[in-house]
Amino acid sequence: MIYIFSGPSGVGKSTIIDAIRQKRDFQFSVSYTSRNIREGEYHGEDYNFVSKDEFLKLIEDDFFIEYEKYGRNYYGTSKNAVTDSGNSLILDLEVNGATKLLASNDSFIGIFIDIEDDELIKRLKNRGHDDAFIDERMRLAEYQRSFVEKFHYKIQNKDINTTVNEILDIIYSLEER
Q: Hey, what domains does the chain have and what are their CATH numbers?
């Protein structure tokens, strides 16, 4: 099975995925993005960072299984990441791309991760974003939450350890079927 993690920006998806991968041997699909690299991120590890023009050329070349414009930037998953993955793959996708893949194939399992608004605002501020950007992201988060019913599971990330254990319980129960 391929697990798709999605939810608003800043809810802790990357931290959760990293913690799960420390406990289980999952491959992680490194997405492509046209956004600038942030301090502490590494090309090929956190994202494949490309220019907007390069990203648009990859779209033209039918390189992606899914892609979306999220905020001011593009994000996408290569077709090879999914076809070459085997059975233990985690994708971190924007909600629109995630719901498209979930609708296209029963082997994808969708996990929507969310947090309370006040915590989301705090995390976005800690990333150094200004109020206008945060307002834009909060409107986007509200829109993204409208798709939660399209996912198999919704997890409220109140505590990283509890959240990781809850997701691992889901994965174990699915593997036992």
A: 1-29+87-177 (3.40.50.300), 31-84 (3.30.63.10)
